[in-house]
């Protein structure tokens, strides 16, 4: 595929001329890229739920339905985005993701005005139907370009620049990502107080959308070989250029391997539970007798455990089989879900905080290091695209699973028990995972 002059590695500057290994600068800009995906993440979208309820006439259940539908549709498109990543590289895809997120946020800011226009054009269709369709499309775009493509491109680009230091690079990135994600609702609420709902969306469109598109185009580079370097900072002229054997496993081969599915299911289980817990945290806290402030206050200490575990997991992933990290992840998910059964007790809440925090950090590490470790970099976009699609789909299941549990019994115990059983089964399955991809055994 012929590369345009404007996305060639040497334009507008050659990374090999940097006074230090350019991969460490990649860590900085891709970390910013993951943080810029926040408006498309659950904690980013959830801040605007009350605004949508007031101004669109939709109730909380209808908003949840639109969110779930948009998220599922996004998950179906992400594998295709992964293939385009393999074809076009990170710079074109981050331009695409940032521009798409910016447009989605601008549409979001004008959703009330657009709904009025739709009512005039389609005056025979109920307002609720028009609002559902409109908000579903906006959610689809936010999830696709934010949580989906922007996060995927940033994680893939980071992973491609490192081999033996991939875990360390992931751990450093995770320090900032975990704190930014946990503090995002508070920051976005401050933006809303300062600029209003539409104004805050426009500001995020400029910064997280179009701004990230420009930053990514300027600094992202797909892989070190394109720039005359090797992973981990080695150069082609170095005496020691030995790297771990580079596998080039296709998507079809990866999908036939046991490792892909056990790691995918383990990390998707995290998406189901954490998204459901986050989406319904106010109600969960209310049932436990907590104020709204106390209910949301659990995320700060949870982020501290997440930051610590991400850094330790990154260090450990360079030195041990990844299956042990997966076992710890699903084990913590199961134990944390046990804590949900008695959430009114302070010891039980700390059980949730510690276990969910630890698994969150491990998830952040594995989402970067697992796929290139097992399957190499050539088809990383396609493989990660399927995983991201599954993960986004799983995140759509969490809120209705928790909601159905509350509707049936008035508590979230059923959802918690399902998680306990499922994750302890995954714990048994994780013991059979292998350290590397072997076509004879996978």
Question: What is the CATH superfamily of the largest domain?
Answer: MFS general substrate transporter like domains
The CATH class of the largest domain: Mainly Alpha
The proportion of residues forming helix, as a percent range, comes to over 70%
Q: Poorly predicted ranges (pLDDT <50, ≥5 residues)?
A: 238-245
User: Mind telling me which CATH architecture of the largest domain this is?
Assistant: Up-down Bundle
Number of helices: 17
Largest sheet: none
Counting helices, strands and paired strands, the structural category is: mainly alpha
- Overall outline: globular
Share in β-strands: under 5%
Average pLDDT: 87
Number of domains: 2
N→C terminal distance: 32 Å
Radius of gyration: 22 Å
CATH fold group of the largest domain: Growth Hormone, Chain: A
Number of strands: 0
Can you give a write-up of this model?
This protein is an all-alpha fold. It has two domains: 15-227, Growth Hormone, Chain: A; 251-430, Growth Hormone, Chain: A (Up-down Bundle). Helix content is 75%, strand content 0%. It is built from 17 helices and no strands. It has helices at residues 22-36, 42-46, 49-56, 60-88, 90-109, 111-121, 127-160, 166-219, 251-255, 258-279, 281-287, 292-296, 299-317, 322-340, 346-375, 380-409, 413-430. Helix 10 packs parallel to helix 14. The longest helix has 54 residues, at 166-219.
């Amino acid at each position: 595929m012929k590369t345009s002059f404007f996305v060639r590695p040497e334009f507008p500057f050659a990374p090999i001329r940097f006074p230090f290994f350019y991969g460490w600068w990649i860590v900085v800009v891709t970390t910013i890229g993951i943080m810029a995906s926040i408006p498309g993440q659950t904690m980013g979208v959830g801040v605007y739920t009350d605004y949508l309820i007031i101004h669109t006439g939709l109730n909380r259940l209808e908003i949840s339905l639109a969110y779930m539908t948009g998220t599922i549709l996004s998950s179906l498109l992400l594998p295709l985005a992964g293939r385009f990543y393999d074809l076009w590289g990170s710079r074109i895809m981050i331009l695409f993701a940032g521009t798409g997120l910016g447009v989605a946020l601008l549409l979001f800011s004008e959703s009330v005005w657009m709904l009025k226009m739709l009512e005039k054009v389609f005056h025979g269709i109920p307002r609720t139907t028009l609002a559902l369709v409109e908000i579903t499309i906006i959610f689809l775009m936010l999830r696709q370009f934010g949580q989906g493509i922007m996060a995927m491109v940033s994680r893939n680009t980071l992973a491609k620049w490192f081999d033996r230091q991939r875990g360390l690079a992931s751990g450093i990135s995770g320090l900032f990502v975990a704190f930014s994600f946990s503090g995002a609702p508070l920051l976005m609420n401050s933006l809303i107080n300062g600029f209003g709902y539409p104004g805050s969306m426009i500001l995020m469109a400029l910064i997280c959308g179009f701004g990230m598109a420009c930053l990514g185009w300027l600094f992202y580079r797909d892989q070190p070989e394109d720039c005359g370097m090797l992973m981990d900072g080695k150069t082609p002229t170095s005496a020691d250029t030995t790297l771990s054997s580079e596998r080039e496993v296709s998507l079809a081969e990866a999908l036939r391997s046991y490792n892909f599915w056990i790691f995918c299911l383990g990390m998707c289980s995290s998406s189901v539970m954490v998204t459901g817990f986050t989406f319904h945290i106010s109600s969960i806290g209310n049932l436990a007798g907590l104020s709204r402030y106390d209910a949301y206050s659990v995320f700060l200490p949870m982020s501290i455990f997440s930051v610590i575990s991400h850094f330790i997991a990154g260090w450990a992933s360079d030195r041990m089989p990844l299956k042990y990290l997966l076992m710890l992840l699903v084990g913590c998910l199961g134990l944390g879900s046990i804590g949900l059964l008695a959430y009114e007790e302070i010891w039980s809440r700390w059980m949730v905080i510690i276990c969910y925090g630890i698994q969150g950090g491990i998830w952040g590490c594995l989402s970067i290091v697992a796929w290139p470790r097992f399957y190499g970099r050539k088809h990383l976009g396609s493989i990660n695209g399927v995983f991201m699609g599954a993960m986004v789909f799983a995140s759509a299941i969490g809120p209705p699973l928790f909601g159905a549990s509350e509707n049936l019994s008035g508590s979230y115990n059923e959802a918690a028990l399902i998680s306990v059983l499922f994750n302890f089964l995954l714990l048994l399955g994780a013991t059979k995972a292998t350290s590397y991809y072997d076509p004879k055994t996978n």
